Request: fold
Amino acid sequence: MPDANPIAPPFYIGDLLVDPPVLQAPMAGFTNYAFRQIVREFGGAGLLATEMVNAKGFVWLDEQEATHPDRLWGVADEPRPLAVQIWDNDPEIMARVGKRLVDEYKVSVVDINFGCPVRQVTEKAHSGSYLLREPERMGRIIEQVVAACGPTPVTAKTRLGCTRDKIVIKDVAQIVEGAGAAALTLHGRTAADMFRGSADWDLISEVKPFLKKIPLIGNGDLDSAEKVVQAFQRYDVDGVMIARACLNKPWLFAQAQAALRGEPIPPDPTLEDERRLMVHHFELVKERFGEEKGAVLMRKYACCYAQGRRGAREFRKHVATIETADQFYAVVRDYFPSEQHAAAG
Reply:
């Protein structure tokens, strides 16, 4: 029998109920509408998020009366709740874009990226995790976005600090809350760590006492339902966010939801089911971008699905060259691991 008392109860971001308390991370180049639709079909994510949107780029497209970014594909019409993540270092531009997202796209949450460690965002644009060097500017950005977006909640996602010898997150957390953010998501690495090493969940948990009212969402290295359960049992967090692990296991949210309810964890799809899933995913991408561009975009998703499978290297070698739908279907049929391949070794 399922446990009547779940391991982790739902929580609120502003007036938005997040149930279950497991969020899908925004990931540049991956969490577009097609991927979000796949996650929705499996279920189990309490809040989904788009790829991060460059605020200056959005404004430029608006001024040119051009089509809004592909990263907003599907946002206007897809089911809610849905968060859109934006990044830049100019408070006025961020507030302007946040207001457009609320007024025109009716998003559920506007999330601000203070965590991206990629050089193009940090050193070139002085945004993302670079702003951990300027907590006061982080506060000004949040204040102006909150003022522009209310009553839609505004959240912040960041890291422990720029480097291991400059862990500033406890001070930053108080600035984030004081500026009016409705939640803080914390990745348990520094900017210098990129994605190396292990996320420090002890440090994530230590931030909770420095937040008076808003929820703390932990992020980093959650690649199984069991680890999601352990995160809630061992650490002082209100929610968790799953990132890279869901790219090759979009059903992970459904497994985590079951585990948190004390229910049996659903098994992974069979390899044959995964082959059908990849074709379905490709059809969603192709519908938006056409066959040629869709095939190129699908290469990286297909490699994610194959990750950790016997024969993945051979599959990646062939899928990396696809240019048409027929080529994609043939590579999936002939090279994606199957039960027969596994049995044959």
